[in-house]
Amino acid sequence: MSGKKWMMKQYWRVGTFRTLFSLALSMMVLGKYYYEYIPILAPLGLVGALILGSLLILLFLGLGYIYDERLKLWNETFQVGVERDPYQQTPNIRSFAMELPMMYAFLSVMKESLHRDNMETSKIDELIKYYVGYFQGCATRKSDLVDSIKSNEEFLRRNPFAEDSVQIQEKRSFGGRVKKAFQTQILRINYIQSLTGSAQDVLIISALYVPILLGASLPENMLLNMIYIMALPLFILLVALGWYYDKRLKMWGPEFSVRLERDPYSYVPEPKIWTSFFPFMIAYLKTTKEVLEKDSSDTSYIEKLMNYFDDYSALKASVDNDMDRGKEIRSNLGNPWIKRKGDDSDGS
């Protein structure tokens, strides 16, 4: 284990313990202040305060369990976040650096091969036309985001993976819509809190400690000026620590690992898969199958992939069981490069 990974594990452990300790401390403080208002606990004194604090801890742990295991609101959290990522609908820097050259090479060679064999190229031509529009999209133009989704839906409607594919669009339940709306409001509040939270924190700290350091008897205007003077270097320190954590230590890996495990789009297609990957795979697999059939070659594995993508493309993050279904169909596909016992296909 590398030194950074070991340090990050300790950071995670301390952070996790700190969260629990902060919860316990806060609830015990509330127990101390409010136990006297509960007739059955008031005569018990310290024991009554501890009992109330413990009950409050259990209450919040129970709410956390309901949030995580029952409501699964982290599903909607990721959905709301992904839907607001403009690079789910338009190409990003990596798309231009890797996806565009790869797709151009594949499609150019395939089209040339089809022309040489006097075969139909309509699927490839339609795909090229689709990608011409897709790679002209800009993340900062709202119209491009809307047009990208529309053109993708039209392309997939005209070109399903399987000829007899039936895409069942399940209507979101009322409860699901409520949960998503709730998480949308939380996200919007977090946007503002992220912009103002650190400034508020340092002002509060300064307001608490300036009177202690300089004396509360100073004139009010002088105290206020000293609060601002003290808050500014604290804010700069927070910014510097954030830069050091991000650019120098680079210890945010475990956080993303946890996010990945909780992300429904780790198991079902995310919007970018629909706009970029599926159209390519539809045309590529169908055309490859036609080429193999013309040469009387085995097409069983291509058909297996087509059936896999047909099932995979039907999965939705808004359907609870689809996450488990995504794990199942991926497990059933196995490693494409390794021939499994009892599998007659060559796996190549």
Ordered list of secondary-structure elements with their pairings:
Blueprint: H1 3-34, H2 46-70, H3 73-83, H4 93-116, H5 122-134, H6 142-158, H7 174-214, H8 220-249, H9 253-262, H10 271-294, H11 300-312, H12 322-333
What does this entry look like structurally?
The protein has 348 residues and is mainly α. It has 3 domains: 3-70, no CATH class; 83-159 and 267-333, no CATH class; 174-264, no CATH class. The chain has helices at 3-34, 46-70, 73-83, 93-116, 122-134, 142-158, 174-214, 220-249, 253-262, 271-294, 300-312, 322-333. It is elongated and about 95 Å long.
Task: List its salient traits.
elongated; mainly alpha; 348 residues; disordered C terminus
